[in-house]
UniProtKB/TrEMBL annotation, chain A:
Residues 20-153 form the DUF1468 domain. The keyword Methyltransferase does not apply. This is C4-dicarboxylate ABC transporter. Keywords: Membrane, Transmembrane, Transmembrane helix. It comes from Aquamicrobium defluvii. The chain crosses the membrane at residues 54-72, 84-105, 125-144. Pfam families: TctB (PF07331).
TrEMBL record, chain B:
It comes from the Bacteria. Keywords: Membrane, Transmembrane, Transmembrane helix. The chain crosses the membrane at residues 20-49, 109-132, 138-158, 165-184, 204-224, 316-335, 355-378, 390-407, 413-432, 439-456, 476-497. Residues 20-447 form the DUF112 domain. Pfam families: TctA (PF01970). This is Putative tricarboxylic transport membrane protein. It comes from Aquamicrobium defluvii.
Automatic annotation (TrEMBL), chain C:
Belongs to the UPF0065 (bug) family. This is Putative tricarboxylic transport membrane protein. InterPro entries: BUG, Bug_dom1. Keywords: Signal.
Amino acid sequence: MSESGSRNTRRRPDRAALGIAAALAAVAIVIAWSTSQAGGVAGYSPVGPKTFPYIIAGGLFILSILTAIEAMRGHFPEREAQDFPPMLWVLGGLVAQMLTMKTIGFSLSTGLLFAATARAFGKGALWKTFPAGVVFALLVWLMFAKGLQLTLPAGPLERLF
Amino acid sequence: MDTFSLLAQGLLVAMEPSNLLYALIGVTLGTAVGVLPGIGPALTVALLLPVTYKLDPAGSLIMFAGIYYGGMYGGSTTSILLNTPGESASIVTALEGNKMAKSGRAGPALATAAIGSFVAGLIATLGLAFVAPSVVKFALSFGPSEYFALMLLAFMTVSAAFGESTLRGITSLFIGLALGLIGIDQLTGQARLTFGMPNLFDGISVTTLAVALFAIGETFTVVAQRATGEDKVETVRGSVWMSREDWRRSWVPWLRGTAIGFPIGAMPAGGADVSSFLSYSAEKNFSKHPEEFGTGAIEGVAGPEAANNASAAGTLVPLLTLGLPTTATAAIMLAGFQQFGLQPGPLLFATNAPLVWGLIASLLVANFILLVLNLPLIGLWVKLLSIPKPWLYAGILVFATLGTIGADGSTFFLGPVPVSFGLLLLMLFGVLGYGLRRFGYPIAPVVVGLILGPMAEKSLRQALQISQGDPMALFHSWIAILLWVLALLAVVLPLYLRARGKGRMLAQFATDED
Amino acid sequence: MKQFVWASIIAGAMALPAMAEDYKIMAPAAPGGGWDQTARSMQTALQDEKISNSVQVLNVPGAGGTIGHAQFVNQSSGDPSQLIVGGYVMVGAILTNNSPVTLDQVTPIARLTGEYEVIVVPAASDIKDMSGLVEKLKADPGSVSWAGGSAGGTDHITAGLIAKAAGVDPTKVNYIAFSGGGEALAAILGNQVTVGISGYGEFAAQIEAGTLRIIGISSDERVEGIDAPTFKEGGVDVSIQNWRMVAAAPGITDEQKAAILADIEKMAKSESWQKILTEKGWADTYLAGDAFAEQLKADTEATTAILKEIGLVK
């Protein structure tokens, strides 16, 4: 989204903010386009299923222009430097959990997320945090799936119980 | 068989030692599950309801009441401490509450939330007992036209009350409105912005969005500051208890929140979220310290928390008198009532009097036990903040994802890989939440847009359809006209005040500079 | 620790085939809804009656059940331990949502319960009976506003069928969709709309209290305990039942199907199930095997026709 760590208070134009303006415009266009593709159903109300989408698309478009103007003037608030590698660990953990949840079950998959998050916050040793996470997730699974009948994906580990 | 003796009788039953024990267990369970980040009251009640099946009717009823109030209350704790609301109604609590916690005032924030919830629960439960029939009459006079005017008022007051930049606040709101379009249009059955994906047909779940933007977005933000920001540990400064000043500033918001929350909770299309939004903007407007809003104003916790709980009791008004479940939690409770042989409806108070009064008495007792249990626990909850961050945030993510998977077991194929669709959305919105924070966009208006947008659209179109296209139908009752006038005032008044040079807080909205 | 995990995985994988005699029921709805309650009641009855050792319920909500249904068809093929709960609403939802997976692709087992649609008016309304409603509808269809559940749902379909039977253009029906029966009920009680249409259960308490008047019910014959003429008696030839069913996976053998049918039959006749039906106020409209399959086919045809006429299905 933006280059990491640059303190760009006075930099004009603010390129990241221009990116936001472009994204808003893109969303507006997608909404308008998708709405124009839908078939209409006649009803008694003059305000149909397409009215609000068009209004919102129009609003987003105007906001995109205003955002672009602010960006050109460099009016966005100052941003703190960011530390991206830890963020990627958390994101990676979420992706790993999402991809594996249905296959290997709640505990193992959530263990991955747990370990990745702990790693992001500076607890390094994955070989320690992963098993810890699996045990924690398994306890949570037992409590909710067995104790409270909440259906959570079961994998090889959960089937033992 | 007058009201008082029935209530007294109910209270006597509820105060039996074994029943008190059940109430305690119910409150503890409700709070314990409700407090988990990402697990809201609806899921809490749904999960814990079966626990009550095994008891005798009186015990089961009272435990159930405890679970309900415990679950409603539990969410505010993690909202305040960890900025991770489990559902839409505690988002507002997180706004000011978490700011208070970050400046070391977690104790007073939790206390005002707990006492506010108690006061609101007490008044609203008594309201349920004594004025339910007239409240329900008022609520029924709200048709689509009135709802549209109410939504308009909510938009006008709420959008002015968030954030420091008007442009970014409105942009956030529009992002929420755009998300609200996704799904099948209820009035015509047409799919909008679903791009042919059946998983999007029911729209974006408010809970998923709220949990993602707050809990996941917050985790990203905190972890990204690890290297630069020195660890901003929220140490507890001063007393964990409320000061005299805190009391003085809290009691009016409690009452005001109750007054807003109870009637709106009683409306068929109201709900706890709308009333907490309205209460927040009311407090901001009436406060003597408007400059503190956004940095941790205690009124901003006291009011919305009271409103939230009062509307929880308000929800019971249409549920008991009409058999109308107006929220997801209420729908689950309706199923719960059936096991007690309680058939909600207009005849309930006549045919089932002892049971109804038993329930109301149970709610009063549960409310009291909630306070007794939670005030001493505040010190313990605050200790949550001293859990080392790696474990704290890993735990938050575990529960946030658990709540999502548990409520939605659908599978979506990403190529050959089966993935959970809920988790996919959770991750995408989490990244969005981080992006918004990074560029100074407020988070709450996104959720507000997602909740209010579809409601406003639906009621406008229903009103126009009933009138066969006549726009004058929007002003057909004095309630509608009054709401329109208030909405207009909400726009005009700040302009007028600013023209007279009053209110630094208001001036702040006008300028784009920070 | 790692070794322990691997050992567990292997052990778990080996334990897998041992669970074949249990059932896994999918409720294609959120916890608390009608299909979820049906699935969980089945769970209770099957376990209490010792028909099955362990029954699990999986919630896959969304799009009128079509998401859960599609997932069921794709993932359970040939697995006799998997069941799905569904209902008439799914017939319409599959059509309006253009779902690629149809009800033909599961193995229907039995219809379990059902509810009839009723039309109500506020007690003070000048509409007294079905002929009064038809008269108004013929004079000016737009002036009769109908409050019911979501567009394309059972309530909407019934309204369309009634208009059609009365000789009124179904596209002219001024149907106002509310979320769930609750909001619709509030609109009727608040005199916002002309008539309300929904399942009997939504209005039962109000009808008993006399705040709403029932002018017709969608059954073939009068229903015991409900003091209302049928639509047919009122001169409108429409009958419809909002049923709930249980179906099995596609691609199972005839023996497997027979075994499931026997289990469900046993459950439906059991004391536990009958007790649940009374408690929940569900009508026992049990219909199994081929008779049900035929009924399903007829319902699908009629629904497709009316949804096309209303304009919801192209």
